[in-house]
Design brief:
This protein has 213 residues and is of the alpha/beta class. It folds into two domains: 153 residues, UDP N-Acetylglucosamine Acyltransferase, domain 1; 42 residues, no CATH class. Helix content is 14%, strand content 20%. The chain contains four helices and 15 strands. The radius of gyration is 20 Å and the shape is globular. The protein starts with 17 loop residues before the first strand and ends with a helix. GO terms for molecular function: acyltransferase activity. Keywords: Acyltransferase, Antibiotic resistance, Repeat, Transferase. Belongs to the transferase hexapeptide repeat family.
């Protein structure tokens, strides 16, 4: 035995509020890594895609989520389709209401474009977190409950608030550099299983550094 079946939507059939969202039907503009789960006690976690807003294929932006992420209920990913043109006197979207106003429909090039939204590996996002367009969240980061993330988050840091601000680093710079090189989330299932105590204990990081440095 080397862990749960990563191919199952519900890896633990006794807990139907948690699912591996990489096993949902695929979408061309969404990429999700293995073992990343979404937990929702209010509605089926199978409705994860409902939390991705203003995401239109013709704009070309992607939502990319790494492996082994923990995503709590209330998550919102605001994508580039939410943006209004900002170089004129007004930001009001006249064109969507018709009646002749569509003559000022902006081109894709005239709209603010933040690019892909990228969530790294082993990221934990608490309840009711909002991620704004184009944000990059580094590996091992933690986003606290009720945060709105408007700028990039460095690896292995904790951010919180609205707008989310840096709170602290999880580890020393030396240990963060080691973890980014280690990339344990890319290990095979057997290696993870054999090292799971080290990955989850307070002293495990020091043990891993002794083995791999």
């Amino acid at each position: 035995m080397t862990g749960p079946d990563k191919e199952k939507l519900y890896p633990n059939t006794n807990i139907k509020t948690v699912c591996y969202i990489s096993n949902l039907p695929k979408k061309s503009n969404v990429e999700i890594g293995e073992y990343t789960y979404y937990s929702d006690n209010k509605k089926s976690p199978e409705k994860f895609y409902d939390n991705i807003e203003h995401h239109y294929e013709f704009l070309g932006d992607k939502l990319i989520i790494g492996k082994f992420c923990a995503i709590a209920e209330g998550i919102k990913f605001i994508m580039d389709g939410a943006n209004h043109r900002m170089d004129g006197v007004t930001t009001y979207p006249f064109n969507i209401f018709g009646g002749g106003w569509e003559k000022v429909t902006p081109t894709v090039e005239q709209l603010p474009f933040k690019g892909d939204t990228v969530i790294g590996n082993d990221v934990w996002m608490g309840q009711n977190v909002t991620i704004m367009p184009g944000v990059k969240v580094g590996d091992g980061a933690i986003i606290s409950t009720n945060s709105t993330v408007v700028k990039d988050v460095e690896p292995y840091t904790i951010y919180g608030g609205n707008p989310a601000k840096f709170i602290k680093k999880r580890f020393s710079d030396e240990k963060i550099e080691f973890l980014l090189k280690l990339q344990w989330w890319n290990w095979d299932e057997e290696k993870i299983f054999n090292n799971i105590e080290k990955l989850t204990s307070e002293v495990g990081l020091d043990q891993l550094m002794k083995e791999y440095i």
